[in-house]
Amino acid sequence: MQKGKVSVIIPTYKGDDNVVRAVDSALNQTYKNIEIIVVDDNGKGTEEQLKTEAVLKKYIDEGKILYLAHEQNINGSAARNTGARNATGEYIALLDDDDEFLPENIENHVNCFKNLSEEYGITHCAIKRFYDYGRQEIVPPMHEGDILFEFMCGKVKMGSSCIMVRKSVFDEVNGFDESFRRHQDWEFAARILSKYKAAIVNEVGLNKYQLLRNSAKNPEQYEKNRLYYLEKMKFIIDTFDKKDRNKIYNAHYQQIAIDYFKAKKFGKCFKWTIKTTNPIKCWATIVRDALRFIKRRYL
């Protein structure tokens, strides 16, 4: 491990259209003590792997990135773990292949860590989100310190591209759970937050493009993914008292209901609404959020 060095890990899958933008954003950081590791999860010899390697060839040939290709497609969790095993930095920064860092992002995270005690294992920054229908919004980090409960309730947005983690912490929690196809960043962050505090980097650190190419294609799959996450997180959820456990489950059941509402499957929406401890409040929130979405997108 090299003190002060940051290992930027970029997992990529069917991302040849976007990965160069991600790599360029890492190369253009004001903080220069970095290494960039691109982990190709398409599977060696596949059309997508060959296209990805081709668009990255100049960076590979010039030694600007370390390019690693999985023999076969596994998942994003495994790709991030592969990157971490080959990382030599004191810190790990994760960057999805369809996102891009702003130039001072790494420097801001490192400067934040310099002022923190060992109680802090993770930092998270503000993001600028771009939607396919033209809307943009800045999502600031709202909580710091011991924020596990807020995170489990969905009040903290901590996707993989907006965080930096001490490499020692990444190794301590054994990286990402490779059984996850979705919500792996939530699961990873939850295990860190069960042991360490989080700090805020107030500046916008990245542009996030909501391409949705890796999202669940239907609400039934969304439900399955969310319930798998809750099952795997039970050992953490059970550390809270009953009142807080209910708040955590309510937050997730409500999100499942919202997804069914968006798909106009109102029967299943109602089913998940009444699973919460306050169905009336849940239903009112769903309707309010639906009206806000309509206003943002169409008005």
Distance between the termini: 52 Å
Mean pLDDT: 92
Number of H- or I-type helical stretches: 13
Series of H and E elements:
EHEHHEHEEHEEHEHHEHHHHH
What's the number of extended β-strand segments?
9
Report the principal-axis shape.
globular
Q: Structural class, from secondary structure content?
A: alpha/beta
Rg, alpha carbons:
20 Å
Largest sheet: 9 strands, mixed
What fraction, in percent, of the residue positions are helical? 40-55%
Give the DSSP E fraction (strand runs of 2 or more residues).
Answer: 15-25%
Low-confidence stretches: none
Protein architecture, described:
It is a single chain. This protein is α/β, with parallel strands linked by helices and 299 residues long. The protein is built from 13 helices and nine strands. It has helices at 19-27, 47-55, 57-61, 76-85, 105-114, 148-152, 167-172, 184-193, 219-232, 234-237, 242-262, 266-273, 279-298; strands at residues 2-12, 34-40, 66-69, 89-94, 99-101, 120-130, 136-139, 163-166, 197-209. Strands 1, 2, 3, 4, 5, 6, 7, 8 and 9 form a nine-stranded mixed beta sheet that branches. A hairpin with a 5-residue loop joins strand 6 (120-130) and strand 7. Helix 11 runs antiparallel to helix 12 (266-273) and helix 11 (242-262) crosses helix 13.
